[in-house]
Amino acid sequence: MGWTSAPVLGAAALAVVAGFAFHATEKRHRAPMVPLAMLRQRQVGVSLAIGFALNAGFYGIIFMLGLYYQQLRGMSGIAAGLMFVPLAAVITSTNLLSPPMAERFGRRWVIVIGQAVMVLAMFAVIPLDADTPLWLVLVLLVPTGMGGAFAVPALTALLMDAVPADRAGTASGLLNSLRQTGGAMSVALFGVLLASDADGTGFSLTGMRESLLAVGLLLCATTALSAWLLPRDGR
């Protein structure tokens, strides 16, 4: 429909109005669903931003590679799905490694390192083309799973420590909501750019590289915020 079409502009306007209405309602209510004061806490705000960026990177690249395997490499849906099995194994093992590493070195550095690994993964995938060996694609995908799986357990624990016990459910819900929003928005971004100038394949390598660069820069920003603003002890 195009960026300036009535449905697109109407949806954008509705989102802005809904955001202001939510803020006004929560500010006035005696028992707000999301206490705005909690969002102003540095540790909470930074944690939510990190969660958004991590899922934007992870789900964006998963979405992109699913199309890359099928539309550019001609693989079947089943074969493309099987290409993600090694990634699932890496995520499981790295999730188990994260808590003891956070206990030893502090959550802050585990979160910073996890994001930095994902940044490197985003930039490493940028040169992919239709002739890249599939084994190399698999190798490049591994750091994506490692980075997110390394950071998320420590991030969740850090956020829970930043809020009162009676707000733990609210904080957990906010983190999950922001993470899923990041994934949804990155899929939308990747989808728009991948479909542009696709030369009949339905997949634009230029759009892929622009998407990866955008999400990589977002993760660079949250990595810097983590190193600068999260508690030094991180435990």
What labels describe this entry?
mainly alpha; 79% helix; 9 helices; 235 residues
The biggest beta sheet reads:
none
Helix tally?
9
- Based on secondary structure, the structural category is mainly alpha
What best-fitting shape do the alpha-carbon axes yield?
globular
Q: Could you tell me the number of beta strands?
A: 0
The gyration radius over C-alpha positions equals: 19 Å
* Beta-strand percent range: under 5%
* Proportion in helices: over 70%
Overall mean pLDDT stands at 91
Distance separating the two termini: 49 Å
Order of helices and strands: HHHHHHHHH
Spans of 5+ residues with little confidence (pLDDT < 50)? Answer: none
Describe the protein.
It is a single chain. By secondary structure, the protein is mostly helical. 79% of the residues lie in helices and 0% in strands. It has nine helices and no strands. The protein has helices spanning 6-28, 36-39, 42-72, 77-82, 85-105, 107-125, 134-162, 168-194, 205-229. α5 packs antiparallel against α6 and α6 packs antiparallel against α9 (205-229). The protein is globular. The mean pLDDT is 91.
Topology overview:
Blueprint: H1 6-28, H2 36-39, H3 42-72, H4 77-82, H5 85-105, H6 107-125, H7 134-162, H8 168-194, H9 205-229
Short description:
The chain is mainly alpha-helical and 235 residues long.
